Amino acid sequence: MTNISSFSKAWRHLCSSTWCLMSCFCRLIPARVNSFCVQLCYFFSVSFFGFVFLKVLKPRTRDSFRPRNIDLFFTSVSATTVSSMSTVEMEVFSNSQLIVLIILMLIGGEIFTSMVGLLFKKFQHKRMENKISSLADSDPSTCQSSELEMVEKRDFESLESGNHETSLDSSVDLLKCKSIKFLWFVVLGYFIAVQVLGVSLVSTYLALVSSARNVLKNKGLNSLTFSIFTTVSTFANCGFLPTNENMVVFKSNSGLLLILIPQILLGNTLFPSCLRFCVWFLGKFFKKVESNYLLKKTSEVGYFHLLPSQHASYLVVTVFGFVLTQFILFCSMEWNSAGLHGLNSYQKIIGSLFQTMNTRYAGESIVDLSALSSALLVLFVVMMYLPPYTSFLPVKDDEEIYKKKRNRRGRLLENILFSQLSAYGSVGFTTGYSCDRQTQPDSNCVNKFYGFSGKWSDEGKIILIAVMLEDLRSSTWMAAELENFCDGGHGKIRSIYWPCMFI
């Protein structure tokens, strides 16, 4: 017990000294760095360490072919930014290297980075608990006292009555703090549950269906690694797969495609709607006050993916409307195409549905895109351009904003709500590199399964790397939240917390 007590005191002293040093260092910073730089540093650092591990670990083709450093770094950046552009064939990588790519996609996905931002928001509101510690005898973070329950009930009744003009007092701060904590655990549970379920289903399918299992066996791929890699990539909407041909080799495995389709939607376009449903469902059993606060005060919570009720509902309609439109056009134009040759009607339907689901950010494919009609490719480009939370239905974020907009002249664009994510997109669709498309045939040309970027010069690949990192400017929720956390809206750095050093 003495050793534990001494260690505890030493640890507290170390933490206190560290905070003091960080605070002093923060005060010496003359100006804040743009929040985009924080996220840029995060992704660049992760990509760099990913490159180091990919470099150290040996590829499968260690004797015949070793990827160049620029290609390894390009792959690392592409996996971290879930851009899914490739300059080497995926079957070059060993099982250990595939695990590295899994980690990069996992911590680079939009949902994961948003959880980091939500974690900063939790820290930001932690000080609010200290302001109201006198309301409870126990630890404020547990919030179990009957007095606090009465405060929550009063705040909830205020929300129900529609009174939005009351200034935030200490009890509302506590309620907001607890609600953000609850939201963080909901997102974390959602993040883990969906992917664990996906890995289990894919693994089970591979164990039961010999045709899919034989594909991996012939390619020398580990079934468990393939299951995890495919699930993480699909959920993160990265589009990378351990096979050179992407999902073309599994186009007849309709069961596998059906397993992956929900992963595509749950990890991107339908995430806000599913998250709102989870908050509502869990609120029925526990944390009712926090749940109602999150559902009714989305703008005050400030979590980008938690959309208002109407927007979340219309988003579902819009997403499936786009899918249905693409599905009808794809089936009508490609039903008898070479890409779907050898499939029965059921397999063609599932394959067409899977292909159209992937045009909005996932980027996995069961057909050779270069063989599709030009009109369909144009449609796919339009779908890739649209942000994931696009809604072509009238949406009001909250009552005050709606009242302001209602007084303006009606315009069509006011009923089109675009998300803050960029239109650059990160789908990763590619038409491949085929020698048949050369204007001047070369007898030494070899067909490759990687994208056209694989044939770019080193300078061109560096430009693409810069573009992938620049695209993070469209997804700076984590960095923006970190900036708010350190700024506090007053233009002064909160030097008490170490992440503020980088703002």
Structure description:
The protein is an all-alpha fold and 503 residues long. The protein has a domain of 132 residues. 59% of the residues lie in helices and 0% in strands. It has 19 helices and no strands. Helix 3 packs parallel to helix 18, helix 7 runs antiparallel to helix 10 and helix 9 crosses helix 10. The longest helix is centred in the middle third of the chain and has 39 residues. It is globular and about 75 Å long. The two termini are 41 Å apart. This is Cation transporter HKT6. It is found in: Membrane. Keywords: Ion transport, Membrane, Transmembrane, Transmembrane helix, Transport. It is a multi-pass membrane protein. Belongs to the TrkH potassium transport family. HKT (TC 2.A.38.3) subfamily.
Condensed summary:
It is a multi-pass membrane protein. Belongs to the TrkH potassium transport family. HKT (TC 2.A.38.3) subfamily. This protein has 503 residues and is mostly helical.
Query: How would you characterize the largest beta sheet?
Result: none
**Overall 3D form:** globular
Number of strands: 0
Distance between the termini: 41 Å
Radius of gyration: 25 Å
Q: Count the DSSP helices.
A: 19
Strand/helix succession: HHHHHHHHHHHHHHHHHHH
Q: Fraction of residues in helices?
A: 55-70%
Outline the low-pLDDT stretches: 24-33, 136-152, 158-168, 397-421, 476-503
Backbone structural class: mainly alpha
Question: How much of the polypeptide forms β-strand, as a percent range?
Answer: under 5%
Q: Kindly state the mean pLDDT as a whole number?
A: 75
